[in-house]
Amino acid sequence: MLRPALPAALLLFIAVTLHSGAMDTLMRFLDFGAGVLALVSLSVTVLWGLAATDRMVLQTGHRLLAQAVHRGTGVAGLGFLGLHIWVKVAEGHTTGVSVAVPFTDGARPALIGLGTLAAYVFVAVAVTGAVRGAFTGIAASRWWRALHMSAYLAWGLALVHGLKSGRAAAGWALAGYAVCLAAVAVRLALRLRDARTNSGELP
After folding, report:
1. Residue 117: which of 147, 88, 158 has the closest Cα?
2. Which residues cross the membrane (predicted)?
């Protein structure tokens, strides 16, 4: 009995939301917040991806859980990234051409271009990660790993883009970026050390 009333209720909700100015408030929040949410999600993705490779502390079940979180936060990060791009184009801060073609933005070609490059790499990493099974054989596996490792470079580009291309970051945001950078650097250094130890390069 309630099904016929649901579309009418939804239309009424949208009309009230638009009339109250809530949509404008939401857009103002997303203008700043969508990019931050994307960067935070992708930072967490990088950290959980590094954690999922640990074999000294984590058991197999824990690594599988870490991989699941890694994938989940990656999907969330790409969702927020798409929202961030849409909002910036909708608000007129950049153009569709600048989003698609790096370094073509009229006002800030370098900074917007870094964000575009990072987005392309993140999407490529996500797509190839989803079809990991297609990369069989030693050569294909090495290509997959090299592409997946490029996510670290993309994350660094996104960090610069986020800090410099928009409004000045607040102190708490700068502190958060610094913590993420330090955490990724430490975890990556530990991973490289473990890899060298396992390969016999270290005693």
Report:
1. 158
2. 32-52, 64-87, 107-131, 143-163, 169-190
DSSP state of 170: P
Contacts of 202 (CB under 8 A, 6+ apart): 193, 196
Q: Does the CA dihedral 36-154-193-133 come out positive or negative?
A: positive
**Tokens 């993705």 -> residue:** 45
Structure tokens at 132: 């990991």
Band of residue 203 on the pLDDT scale cut at 50, 70, 90: very low
Q: Which burial class, exposed, middle or buried, applies to 61 when counting CB atoms under 10 A from its CB (0-12, 13-18, 19+)?
A: exposed
Query: How high is the pLDDT of residue 110?
Result: 92
Tokens 């370094």 belong to which residue?
A: 103
Q: Which pLDDT tens digit goes with each residue over 23-35?
A: 677 777 778 788 8
Return the percentage of the chain with pLDDT > 70, whole number. Answer: 79
Cβ(202)–Cβ(196) under 8 Å?
A: yes
